[in-house]
Amino acid sequence: MAEHEHVRVAVIGSGFGGLGAAVRLRREGITDFVVLERAGSVGGTWRDNSYPGCACDVPSHLYSFSFAPNPDWPRTFSGQEHIRAYLEHVADTFGLRPHIRLNHEVVMMRWDGDALRWEIETAQGRLSADVVVSATGPLSDPKTPDIPGLDGFPGKVFHSARWDHDYDLRGKRVAVIGTGASAIQIVPAIQPDVARLTLFQRTPPWVMPRLDRAITGPERWLHRQLPFTGKARRGLLFGIRELQVTAFTKHPNQLGAIESLAKANMAKAIKDPHLRAKLTPSYRIGCKRILLSSSYYPALAQRNVDVVASGLREVRGSTVVAADGTEAEVDAIVFGTGFHVTDMPIAERVVGADGITLAEAWKDGMESLRGATAAGFPNWMTIIGPNTGLGNSSMILMIESQLNYLADYLRQLRVLGGRAALGARASAVHAWNRRVQDRMKRTVWNTGGCDSWYLDANGRNTTIWPGTPSEFRRATRAVNLAEYEVIRARSEQETAGDRTGAVTGAAEAVA
Ligand SMILES: Cc1cc2nc3c(=O)[nH]c(=O)nc-3n(C[C@H](O)[C@H](O)[C@H](O)COP(=O)(O)OP(=O)(O)OC[C@H]3O[C@@H](n4cnc5c(N)ncnc54)[C@H](O)[C@@H]3O)c2cc1C
Q1: How far is the CA of 15 from the centre of ligand 1 (A)?
Q2: % of residues, the chain, pLDDT over 70
Q3: Ligand 1 atom nearest residue 39's Cα
Q4: Which of 152, 164, 171, 430 has a CA positioned 20 to 30 A from the CA of residue 420?
């Protein structure tokens, strides 16, 4: 085998998850690591999504790292360019640049059970690592539906996450497909400029007002001079969302009052009862992500907008045809149709201890231990893995909890000493998932009467964490070694023995 670089840890991805992992590794005193990123710059979600109107929908003071507060957020919900700049700043401030390998798409990873390490093939060559941290993002590979006739469309087509800034939408007839979080930001941003906007809506979202405003100079000054004020602001935002999440997970029947607020938000802007009927959801609020916008409904009420309450069925030349037969001739089609979520693309590229890919192991649905590790894939950990998503709070809270788990995992490996790996026990993975799915039963995501992107092909919710972020934090504070097998190379077993009593591994079988 050709000689190649070996590192202690390979992190894949440079969004919040990957950069957060890199900071944490350095803080744990580990400097022998690389961050492999397929794109030409860091930022993940906030590099790729640059559509007009793109911004976070969790307040910036909560949607940022607790260890890297930014007193200078310009708005309560800051825009994409500011979040992207924040992540670039994190990469600089924490000295991450020397570790980051841009344009290094990971093509394949294989567990070598003899050497107890991952062999990694990237677009720029090979390397190996003792531990892989996969932070490839839950919403990073755009999903465009297979629409008959789309190939023959003579106009412009793009996905919200791959916005073509060279194409001028001004004066054009534009079809927007989808009414999710991205589409509802795009619609009001482009509506004033386009000649006609036809919105294809399969299911209407619940939309609450967005209390977005500029953060004033004195507020910023205060946060800069007295950092505890920024902390207090974050704490307040955290507490409010913690209560909201509790309603989603334990008391969905109490969400009716919130529905009334959302209906009032709609009624204020939409005077046409026919349009209001089209836009009124028939499922419990919270079942799909609650969207925040104070400009979406006003945009839909404009004369140059048509709402088609049906999905896109086919494209005939330059005519888009809805499932209900509605037709419109357009110059451009913008897909706001989301991402590959429950079929995590990186899973096709990971071959574990049993010689099968993670995608094969997950053919009946994703399952991991504490959202991080998977049976048969030793020393492989995912950030924002199965059932770590949040309905309406900051994903950064979940990422930071997973970083605590990662840090303890690496500490445990160090304590074991020598060449060792930890493999999640299948029984522990199943027990964890049984608990998660049990708790899921009473949440709004399962009882709310909607079909959402949180559910996989079998209708199982493998995306959302059915508790509060603080419950997840407690569940991931430390690695419970009883949930893992300690895997050692044969030579190690002879000299060091097994400190926990469980020794397995291909190396053992070979010897
Ligand atoms: C438009 C939009 C708005 C959002 N707003 C919010 C919000 O307000 N609040 C919230 O909590 N969450 C929000 N999210 C969710 C958001 O994705 C997460 O909060 C967070 O940014 C995810 O970070 P990540 O690092 O896990 O993934 P990402 O930011 O997606 O980063 C993954 C990185 O991995 C890289 N990668 C993928 N595959 C490979 C490979 N094979 N090899 C090498 N590199 C690879 C990608 O290029 C990317 O840079 C939003 C998502 C979108 C799309």
Answers
A1: 6
A2: 95
A3: 47
A4: 430
